[in-house]
TrEMBL record:
PROSITE patterns assigned to the protein according to its UniProt record, in alphabetical order: PPR
GO molecular function: RNA binding
Keyword Repeat: yes
Name this protein carries in UniProt: PPR repeat
Native species: Musa troglodytarum
Family label: Belongs to the PPR family. PCMP-H subfamily.
NCBIfam families: PPR (TIGR00756)
Keywords linked to the UniProt accession: Repeat
Gene3D superfamilies (alphabetical): Tetratricopeptide repeat domain
Length: 423
């Protein structure tokens, strides 16, 4: 259609360049740039964004540096800074950000999000405090950032500060807050957020509805979660996963499998997270046959099992006493087993006093060298030998811990005082 046009202007050229950039065909986009008679600030911004999207920040920066000062508008600065951020180049992003003659709300929020993804919450907060005039987008970036790194109390405190400053939440704020409440297991706060959603008549989009299902399920009110889930006219994979996970985590593994069967009959296909949740449900319920069938079913959906899926499978077989079979699965894994996989197998060895398999594990990991620094494997091995009355081997493990300067970390729990989670 574009080539058949008798006359082409900047708008049509930009539309085509944008289309090529969105699908990563940057060579075709540059060909059009060469043919374009007059380039606009939009042209450059679209091209810079396209190169950044495919991870080529060098090419993006080359284009950015070609732009004259008259054409280098705020959008061009913003997409270049954002391009560095989405590729994890925060130092380069900060250098360019500090050089910006003028900053819009988006670039402030993008920088805050970037620092949270890097794990530098302190710098994200410092940057937020420097914003001269804040808007809701900035507050949402701060709240979402704290939620995503698990600092949920700080997310709730940021929300309270936001309201004190006169800002009212939208559906994106609510989704982050519901996630924070779910992580905290705080049904009281979750209910307050739900009441606020209804009171403010906030749009019930996917993010909010999924957040409600996930929050109620994680906080123990599975019936309320199921009620909201059943009332949804359309559900995406995240919502199905939240409900299946909620049922499984509260001992309703059979119901979780039944819901998965309903998901298969729906228009929404399961993803890797769905199968991880299902395998975990089978593990805790001891559903070995079902778990093996679910693991095999991943191929039907074109999904490759990750190390987390194998970890669940090892745990499932190990808890059922099929320790030798679990060890064989590890031997055939297409990726290198991590400490979680070995830990699941060693835990099964301890449970069933399988010293023979435990000895194989020790030889396989090179006499504990590959797990140096992880106290759990040492303690489990020591306990296996002690329970089998192999005191000399148990003492050898304890000495190895001392040589590697590894101390057994004490367990800890988190308790929310003053909350009634019974509903």
């Amino acid at each position: 259609m574009f080539e058949e046009m008798p006359e082409k202007n900047a708008v049509t050229f930009n539309a085509m360049i944008s289309g090529y950039s969105m699908v990563g065909e940057m060579g075709s986009a540059l060909d059009l740039l060469d043919r374009m008679p007059g380039r606009t600030p939009v042209t450059w911004a679209v091209l810079i964004e396209g190169f950044a999207r495919i991870g080529d920040t060098v090419a993006a920066r080359r284009l950015f540096d070609q732009i004259t000062d008259q054409v280098r508008t705020v959008p061009a600065w913003t997409v270049m800074v954002h391009g560095y951020i989405i590729n994890g180049e925060m130092d380069a992003a900060r250098t360019l950000f500090d050089q910006m003659p003028f900053r819009n709300a988006f670039v402030w929020s993008s920088m805050i999000t970037g620092y949270f993804k890097k794990g530098d919450a302190a710098e994200a907060q410092r940057l937020f405090d420097q914003i001269p005039v804040r808007n809701l987008v900035n507050w949402n970036a701060l709240i979402a950032g704290y939620t995503q790194i698990g600092c949920c109390e700080k997310a709730l405190e940021a929300f309270r500060r936001m309201r004190r400053d006169g800002f009212e939440p939208d559906e994106f704020t609510m989704a982050s807050l519901l996630s924070a409440c779910g992580q905290l297991g705080s049904l009281q706060h979750g209910r307050e957020i739900h009441e606020l959603i209804n009171g403010r008549r906030i749009k019930m989009n996917y993010f909010v509805l999924n957040g409600l299902v996930d929050m109620y399920a994680k906080c123990g009110d599975v019936e309320r979660a199921r009620s909201i889930f059943n009332g949804m006219t359309k559900r995406n994979a995240s919502c199905w996963n939240s409900m299946i996970s909620g049922l499984a985590s509260h001992g309703q593994s059979r119901e979780a499998l039944e819901l998965f069967a309903a998901m298969e009959e729906s228009e929404e296909e399961p993803n890797a997270i769905t199968f991880l949740v299902l395998l975990s449900a089978c593990t805790h319920a001891g559903f070995v046959k079902e778990g093996l069938e679910i693991f095999a079913k991943m191929d039907e959906y074109g999904l490759a099992a990750g190390v987390e899926h194998y970890g669940c499978l090892i745990d499932l077989l190990g808890r059922a006493g099929r320790v030798a079979e679990a060890y064989d699965v590890i031997q055939k894994m297409p990726m290198t087993p991590n400490e979680v996989v070995w830990g699941a197998l060693l835990g099964a060895c301890k449970l069933h006093l399988e010293t023979e398999v435990a000895d194989k594990v020790i030889r396989h990991v090179g006499r504990l060298n590959s797990v140096a620094g992880c106290d759990a494997q040492y303690v489990i091995l020591s306990n296996i030998y002690a329970a089998s009355e192999k005191w000399q081997e148990a003492e050898k493990i304890r000495r190895a811990m001392q040589e590697h300067r590894i101390q057994k970390l004490p367990g800890c729990s988190s308790v929310a005082a003053g909350e009634d989670k019974r509903g």
